[in-house]
Amino acid sequence: MDNVLGTLNGIEFTIGDSLLELSYLIAALLFVYGLKLLSHPETARRGNLWAAAGMGLAMFTTIVLHKDANGTGISLTNIWIIMAAIGVGAVIGWIIARKIKMTGMPQLVSIYNATGGAASALVALLEYPNAIAGDVGSILVTVLGLIIGAVAFSGSMIAYGKLDGKVGDIMKPFMTYINLVLLALTLGFGAYIIISPNPPVEMIWAIYTLLAFSLVYGVMFVMPIGGADMPVVISLLNSFTGIAAAMAGFIYSNQAMILGGILVGSAGTILTILMCKAMNRSLINVIIGSFGGGGAALDREQGNIKEIMLSDAAVLLTYSQKIVIVPGYGLAVAQAQHIVHELDALLNGKGVDVKYAIHPVAGRMPGHMNVLLAEADVPYENLVEMDDINPDMPNVDVVIVIGANDVVNPAAYDDPTSPIYGMPIIDAHLAKNIIIMKRGMGKGYAGIENFLFFDDKTRMLFGDAKDSISKLVSEIKSM
What we know:
Elements: E1 4-8, E2 11-14, H1 15-37, H2 41-65, H3 76-99, H4 105-127, H5 136-163, H6 174-195, H7 204-222, H8 230-252, H9 255-279, H10 283-287, H11 310-318, E3 322-327, H12 329-334, H13 337-349, E4 353-358, H14 368-375, E5 383-385, H15 386-389, E6 398-402, H16 411-414, E7 433-438, E8 458-462, H17 465-477
Parallel strand pairs: 3-4, 3-6, 4-5, 6-7, 7-8
Antiparallel strand pairs: 1-2
């Protein structure tokens, strides 16, 4: 045939094959470029569009140019089914994106992780019977894709339930041993399937058993983890989804899926390691499910709680030169991001320098506070990372802590018996004055007392953050 470019090991390569491979290369480059743009909020939207264009190109060229081993393309019936599925998914995604609130973004990310894991697991489940007995490489990637995809699916669904308040925590010491046993059983059974000499068509029972083990492990892996530890968990599950997608790409010998999965998996893994460092935890603790949980209260004298009146807080803030706001999950719960921005704009108008100190694991997902404040149009240059803001803390007139707890707890520095000892924190205790906004004296995820509350420089402003800040804005405007 005229369009045959050549043969390799008896396999003919056509112009269509070359164009398909070229489109995958272009798609991969668009993925990388999009990922680079995602590194900054001002270019993140364009990054999403470029990466989406790459995926769209890969999907289009696959539908048009893909040929099976017999040289037959995708049937018209299957093309219509594919287009209908894409259309339904696009409509559902558009509706969700329009309706989701920023406070619900962690739940949405968990659902997306779950769907990605489920898709990869289904690919492995459907393709396993087609594997050739004794082809260890093919069966290996299929089994890995099933395990990782199933764990990502069930684990992400539990993470969604925890973030949405539908699922509670099971934080018992025995959970670590149960998870280790489940992990060993899952990996052991997977190894048995890989090395088994029996044809895959005779091992269908085994692949479904492995699926069950993987789903149960995904559930048990996330169950002991507290809601405040979700930034690490979501990042890890995201990397699982990427790795599972790469495994699916190996199954189909699809370069676009392989490269896309590798990018997602590697980015998620790097972010997970950074999150672990920010929590002073090891990655192995996350994997075996012993991450987070309660700790004993510190055994030392608490001191006295000192409250501050709204009028006094308004005066203090108005006549300050430098103010730092430390947002936490309580800010998201109160949906106070817009009124906080109104407060900082009001103070800026009075000549006060206002910045936001962002802890890497504040909130329920990586970058949660950045996303939340970006929704309120807080300028990105006003969001300062922990390592950059800490050296300037002694020069700050007032630190306002809104709904944050363990990320400002000085026990991380001065109490070796504390569960958070060694964890990097925002040095709010070094500021000249500290105002803490909380509903009450509740503890953070570590279950320990925050002795910043009893510091001589600290004043507590109790109540709903949104309501308190609204009243504070009114007080300042009336001055």
